[in-house]
Specification:
mainly alpha; 89% helix; 70 residues
Length: 70
């Protein structure tokens, strides 16, 4: 795997970890009845999911560049 592809995989994993933390916070605030804070954390989590997907796509593109499509 190329260094660039590996870096994108690492960044995708980091975004998934951040998203998970925000989902936990959203659940905590939702259960406490603080729906505004819950919505904020859910929105931030969604952003991390989007960034993770972008990095995963870029990792795949780097892999194709390095090894060609099969």
């Amino acid at each position: 795997m190329s260094k660039e592809a590996a870096n994108h995989h690492k960044q995708a994993a980091e975004h998934h970890e951040h998203a998970a933390r925000h989902h936990h916070e959203a659940a905590k605030h939702h259960l406490a009845g603080n729906h505004e804070k819950a919505a904020h954390h859910a929105h931030v989590a969604h952003g991390h999911h989007v960034h993770a997907a972008e990095h995963a796509e870029n990792a795949a593109k780097e892999h194709v560049k390095a090894h060609g499509a099969k």
